[in-house]
Amino acid sequence: MVNFSKENFAKLSEYVYRKSGIALEHDKHFEKVNKKLVSRAKDLNLENFRKYFFNLRFEDKDGKEFQELMNAITVNETYFFRENYQFEILVKHLLPEIHSKKQKDEPIRILSAPSSTGEEPYSIAIHIVENNIVVNERDIEIVGIDIDSNVIEKAKRGLFSDRSIHAIPKQVFNKYFTQKMGYNELNSDLREAITLSQCNVFDKEQIRKLGKFDIIFSRNMLIYFDDASRKEVAMTFYDMLNSSGYILLGHAEYMNRIVSVFHPKKYNNNLFYQK
Ligand SMILES: C[S@@+](CC[C@H](N)C(=O)[O-])C[C@H]1O[C@@H](n2cnc3c(N)ncnc32)[C@H](O)[C@@H]1O
Fold first, then answer.
1. From 221, 230, 233, mutation site for ligand 1 pocket: most ligand atoms within 8 A of C-beta
2. Does the global pTM surpass 0.90?
3. CATH number, domain 85-274, options 3.90.1150.10, 3.40.50.150, 3.30.710.10, 1.10.1200.10
């Protein structure tokens, strides 16, 4: 692609920011975005940035081109049992408490936003099954969402690299995985226990369709947003939570630096937040 200048990068960044909340930085993202644009422009036979950008804004009726761009930009790093203390908070503290208070016939709903390639929602499921505290008495629904459609497809396939499973204790791993074609395949019962869908946390319509949750895991996404976007997403999560619902963030993310509507709580000295 000719003429993908600093100015063009700024234009594209502004557009991406408005639609996804992701703040692109020239030094960090230029090479990656440039590479993607070169290959898309070639595929679509568009000879310059102006044509690509016009196509992205005005001719992308089904949103596929924007999806392609997002899939190239997102950082999807994740692994099973990452920041495991939070799954411990979930099974030892939050689930028993919600179970004791919530009407018996209502499901407990947990959202993983963003789920990336699925390791987070599947870790939640494994912890729940392993602890076997509430599952026999009521339904627990686990929903995973991510803006990147490729990672959602990968999550559904349930095939994981050795790196992705490295933090799972061996005896737990042996119960839920089998080796297949050089990958570690999660068993189908667990795969079917999770609902996964592509969803942008800034897209109000997509978010509304997900319904309300008792617990939200939102780890290692807010760090990619600027202050205004973080606030917007934090308030979206606030609205998505049932009253007294809980939210857990990544270890470098602090809700009280974003909005003050949640109450900070601690379990074993680890922070989480309550509506
Ligand atoms: C680093 S991963 C975090 C995965 C997992 N929560 C964890 O902590 O291991 C960040 C994910 O955020 C997703 N993401 C970025 N912006 C998003 C948005 N606006 N809506 C939904 N997901 C988004 C990316 O696609 C990426 O998969």
1. 221
2. yes
3. 3.40.50.150
